[in-house]
Amino acid sequence: MQVAVIGIACEFAGDIHSPTDLWHALEESRDVGSEIPRDRLDIDSYCMHMFNKDNDGHFRQKLLRRGYFLSANQWDTFEPSFFGLSDAEAGSVDPCHRLLMLKFVHLLDAAALYSKIFGP
């Protein structure tokens, strides 16, 4: 059985929205990690009870403070009306599912199937 890959789409940390963006990041050996955004997790407040018991300061030094996060604008590009959803309905859809729906449209577009399915 033969399989043909006719379209791809992706979304990664570091504002990587497409396979081309990913390729450029790989070519540049770019580290797309960042400090943990405080709006995602206030690590100091979260671990305060552990810091109080950390007499020698080792825990604070070893605490992970970096990660790979999608930026806020990567989550905010979803247009509910495009998918036939109201704002209230879209608000109840898991953000990961909204991102998957958006990337599926990008996949159809990359495969040149979007206009065949939905019209010009």
From TrEMBL:
SUPFAM superfamilies to which the protein is assigned, alphabetical: Thiolase-like
Gene Ontology biological-process annotations: fatty acid biosynthetic process; secondary metabolite biosynthetic process
Record domain Beta-ketoacyl synthase-like N-terminal: where: 2-113
Domain of life: Eukaryota
Keyword check for Phosphoprotein: yes
UniProt keywords, alphabetically: Phosphopantetheine, Phosphoprotein
Identification of the protein by name: Beta-ketoacyl synthase-like N-terminal domain-containing protein
Organism whose genome encodes this protein: Rotaria socialis
Lineage summary: Eukaryota, Metazoa, Spiralia, Gnathifera, Rotifera
